[in-house]
Write a structure and sequence with these properties.
The chain is mainly α and about 500 residues long. It is built from 21 helices and eight strands. The chain has helices spanning about 1-30, 30-35, 40-60, 70-85, 95-100, 100-120, 125-150, 160-175, 180-185, 190-215, 220-235, 240-250, 265-280, 285-300, 320-335, 340-355, 380-390, 395-410, 445-455, 460-475, 490-500; strands at about 315, 365, 410, 415-420, 430, 435-440, 475-480, 480-485. The strands form four sheets. A two-stranded antiparallel ribbon has the order 1-2. The protein has a two-stranded antiparallel ribbon with strand order 3-4. A two-stranded antiparallel sheet has the order 5-6. A hairpin with a 5-residue loop joins β3 (about 410) and β4.
Length: about 500
């Protein structure tokens, strides 16, 4: 008797696990039915009613099954209502608590019908293949409806408001914390340097997004000022700037009178402070901003070719240099044109000397003397980022670059996006900056391209990018916060996408 009971317990656990996984997977693909709530509460409710019904069917004799069929639901609903009323921070609405078992019933009926139909009409030899094909088709249909549902708000910036604000709130929850926690949000496998870079970029891009959101939705400006102030303090922490200290063997903020570049770190910090000032922040960081911009201007003018290396003994990364030029340009806007001559000088050199002959695009890399390399490819991810930064400096030059980039690198299709290379095939590849390249498309390049497409009001391209992001990322929502599932792997991508999609002129 005890062995039989133990066997039933094991069987009950297996069936609960199997049905739970199936329901969660299908639930994940149907946000248009369930308001894309994927919180712990929802998953707990699915597990709860699944366990009650599996146990009921396992331990109640067959002749009595239909006499008390509502009993598991009564147990479930009573427990769910107790959780709804008394559990702290319970986010699942009462209607979800009461009607969620319908999702399980639909899954159960569909699965049983499919299984019965396949046994009757399909030969054993091909049954598995047909069932898998039907199931994959079913998933494809669900995913298609999911993408259409999530992209229905992209017709206007007002319709996107909830989506944008809830993504902002998710990023704030992740990044307005201790500096070490921010670093811990970055994948450990990429190493200390890239963890630091990604942490800096996450804070910088969220700051840029907050500036954009303040202009799009002025009622959010006051709170966004406080958020950017917190992000600036995090970026200034020794923990975040350690990656740059490690590479240059000196602290970037303690050596502003020195000659080492540190251009990536100090330029992002200066850009963030400029954004803080742009939306009405106070003057508490004015002295630091003045010192950083003075330092960048001096180092740029003293360099061999108006360019500074990100790290010692490495190539010059043009997008990193552009952040410095953006910061100097915004500083000039606030200080009667101070350092504007350096900005103009850099742009003039860029248009004359640093354009790739094959594409007409600003190059991705320069050698340590600021000269062109031979036979170095133009990368879609770098070019898209160059184009985005240029929108802050020279709109005419930026638009010329945008048109050329679009004509050479944009790829239409079921999944549209920006290619990483224009003159070679790369169906699959891995790049620390571009991300995993699939079907020649660059995830980072596609996201960065949204920045200039928004700025130049190219709604068609911007909407296609947001659709691709939804196909690849899949939005999930917990409470009043939403994000792409991929943010669990690369939070920096979520921050970049929010900054780019809100970069309206």
């Amino acid at each position: 008797m005890s062995d039989d009971f133990f066997t039933r317990i094991i069987d009950c656990m297996w069936k609960t696990c199997k049905w739970f996984v199936l329901q969660v997977f299908l639930y994940f693909l149907t946000p248009y039915l369930w308001n894309y709530e994927y919180g712990v509460e929802t998953l707990s409710l699915i597990l709860l009613y699944t366990l009650f019904y599996v146990a009921y069917f396992e331990f109640i004799p067959k002749e009595r099954l239909f006499n008390c069929l509502l009993f598991p639901y009564i147990l479930y609903s009573t427990t769910a209502l107790l959780l709804y009323n008394f559990a702290d921070n319970w986010n699942a609405p009462i209607w979800t608590c009461l009607f969620l078992p319908l999702h399980g019933l639909i899954c159960f009926i569909c699965f049983k019908l499919l299984k019965r139909y396949s046994k009757r009409t399909i030969k054993t030899r091909f049954r598995s293949i047909v069932i898998c094909s039907l199931f994959l088709t079913f998933l494809f249909i669900l995913k298609s409806f999911s993408v259409l549902w999530m992209c229905r708000e992209h017709d206007s910036i007002e319709q996107e408001r909830n989506d944008i604000i809830e993504r902002r709130d998710y990023l704030l929850d992740k990044l307005i914390t201790s500096p070490q926690n921010v670093l811990d949000e970055m994948p450990a496998g990429i190493g200390t340097q890239f963890q630091g870079e990604w942490a800096l970029y996450s804070c910088s891009m969220l700051s840029a997004a907050l500036v954009n959101i303040s202009h799009l939705y002025p009622e959010t400006r006051e709170e966004n000022i406080l958020y950017i102030d917190s992000l600036i303090n995090i970026v200034m922490s020794p923990e975040i700037r350690y990656y740059d200290t490690m590479r240059w063997d000196e602290d970037p903020l303690e050596t502003l009178d020195g000659n080492s570049s540190h251009v990536s770190y100090i330029s992002h910090l200066a850009w963030m402070i400029c954004g803080y000032k742009d939306i009405g922040g106070d003057n508490k960081d004015d002295e630091l901003l003045s010192r950083i911009c003075k330092t960048m201007n001096r180092r740029i003018l003293k360099s061999k070719g108006l360019n500074l290396p990100t790290y010692p003994d490495e190539s010059i990364y043009v997008p990193d240099m552009l952040v410095a030029i953006v910061a100097l340009n915004q500083y000039a806007d606030m200080h009667k044109g101070k350092y504007r001559s350096t900005v103009k000088k850099w742009i003039k050199r860029a248009q004359k000397d640093w354009i790739d002959n094959g594409t007409g695009l600003l190059v991705s890399f320069l050698d340590e003397n600021g000269n062109l390399y031979k036979d170095v490819p133009i990368k879609g991810s770098y070019s898209a980022l160059n184009c985005y930064y240029l929108t802050f400096i020279d709109e005419t030059f930026a638009y010329q670059q945008y048109k050329k980039l679009k004509s050479l690198f944009w790829k239409d299709g079921f999944i549209s996006g920006l290619k990483e290379y224009w003159d070679r095939s790369c169906p699959i590849g891995i790049d620390i900056d571009a991300g995993p390249i699939l079907f020649e498309l660059s995830p980072s390049g596609t996201a960065f391209f949204a920045g200039s497409s928004a700025f130049f009001n190219d709604a068609e391209i911007r909407n296609e990018i947001l659709t691709t992001a939804e196909i690849a990322g899949h939005t999930i929502k917990i409470g009043n916060k939403r994000h792409y599932l991929l943010a669990n792997v690369a939070l920096v991508g979520e921050a970049i996408m929010l900054a780019m999609r809100t970069n309206f002129k």
